[in-house]
Amino acid sequence: MSSSAIIDRTQQPPRVMALLHTSLKSLQTAVGARSVRAAEQASVEVAQSAIDLEARYLPPQQVEVARFHLHTQQLRVAAAAGIDATENDRNRCERSAWRSVARAVRLAMA
Predict the structure, then answer these.
(1) What domain range is 16 assigned to?
(2) 105/64 same-domain check
(3) SS3 string of the chain?
(4) Which of 6, 34, 67, 96 places its Cα 20 to 30 Å from the Cα of 44?
(5) Does residue 45 sit in the same domain as residue 75?
(6) Rounded-to-integer distance, Cα 44 and Cα 73, Å
(7) Do 68 and 97 touch, CB atoms closer than 8 A?
(8) Distance between CA atoms of residues 56 and 12, nearest Å
(9) How much is the pTM?
(10) Rounded to an integer, what distance in angstroms lies between the CA atom of residue 8 and that of residue 109?
(11) How far apart are CA 38 and CA 58, in angstroms?
(12) How many folded domains does the chain comprise?
């Protein structure tokens, strides 16, 4: 039985499950096509869905650290694909990452 089939048998938020299935299908398609770039992007999307599922069960600071890590991976994937983010995109991503770090620190100190 596949991992997604096991997860399907549990009570999970429908929107998160829809995104998970879409990203898993994208990953499967990318791997089948041997498209490294598409597989990297799909992997980031699968990871986002995994974080969304785990967020219900993990301490908030662990979720924020995972999201921060995912932001860095998204930047790495974009850079490897040769995508030149605009200054606004970079600033938005940096602000989002730093907000995640700040929340994690606040939660850890509480």
Answers:
(1) 1-57
(2) yes
(3) CCHHHHHHCCCCCHHHHHHHHHHHHHHHHHHHCCCHHHHHHHHHHHHHHHHHHHCCCCCHHHHHHHHHHHHHHHHHHHHHCCCCCCHHHHHHHHHHHHHHHHHHHHHHHC
(4) 6
(5) no
(6) 7
(7) yes
(8) 10
(9) 0.68
(10) 36
(11) 29
(12) 2
Q: CA-to-CA distance for 45 and 15, rounded, in angstroms? A: 14
**pLDDT (tens digit per residue) in 16-59:** 899 999 999 999 999 999 999 899 989 999 999 999 988 889 99
What residues contact residue 16 under an 8 Å CB cut-off, 6+ apart? Answer: 49, 52, 53
Tell which residue, 41, 44, 68, 52, has the closest CA to residue 18. 52
For residues 30 and 66, state if they share a domain: no
63 phi, psi to nearest 5 deg: -65, -45
Residue with tokens 């030149």: 84
Res. 71 pLDDT band, cuts 50 70 90: confident
Say whether both 44 and 68 belong to one domain. no
